User: What shape does this take?
Amino acid sequence: MASASEGYVPQLSHLMAQSAGALVRSPSHSRRAEARRRLARHSLWLVAGLSALIIVLMFAFDATEIGLMPKRGSPELWPVRILTDFGKDEYVLWTLAAMFVASAVAYPLVRSRARPALARFAIRVEFFLLAVALPLLLAEAIKWIVGRGRPFVGGKADAFNFVPFAGTAAYFSFPSAHAVTAFALAFAVTAIWPRWWVAAFLYAVLIGASRLLLLAHHPSDVVGGALIGIVGAMAVRYWFAARRVGFDIGDGGKIVPL
Assistant: This one.
């Protein structure tokens, strides 16, 4: 740790270097192998189950569901348009980044006895930020590769309107970035505060539902986003725990917050 007698800039520089170094160093936890096996097992179940659901939705429900939704741009959907912005990736990421920067900037200024609590807060915000950002990077690559048309692009309810590598917003339907953001954030929150799981996943489900009501996505797009968000956040949690940053690993490879 930097000495409180050092100047502000040296303290801040030391803090940022220490924060980055903690996450890029080699994993050191003695139970990391158990946690890795547990992560692989849970991820496999999620991928298998939700992938099967995505296929079923594409063939049996996607086209029917979007046909039941209100017309795009309907005035009565204004509350849904406000709600959906709470899952917009840019807003969530910028908010988390601002919170992390603010905590880092404040760290050298607070009294020594307040620093452990502020450091714990910064680590948790850093976890939230990476738990959302990294799955989103994967989702953006998949969107570009898959090139699935959004509902009614092309003039009809076609669940199989694909133009791979199109790279345009009209063909960025699968997976839903809002769903990735919301479900990744929901998992990250419950990883720190398990008792909040109902509120966290209710938020994620509402964000996913808003994308359907606004005809921005098919149901399978939302499920695909949820899958990537949850599994991605699980992997980030393991990365932190294996390095003893913000998390510990208990018996059986169970990861718990510090």
Q: What stands out?
A: The mean pLDDT is 93. Strands lie at 247-249, 255-257. The first strand starts at residue 247 and ends at 249.
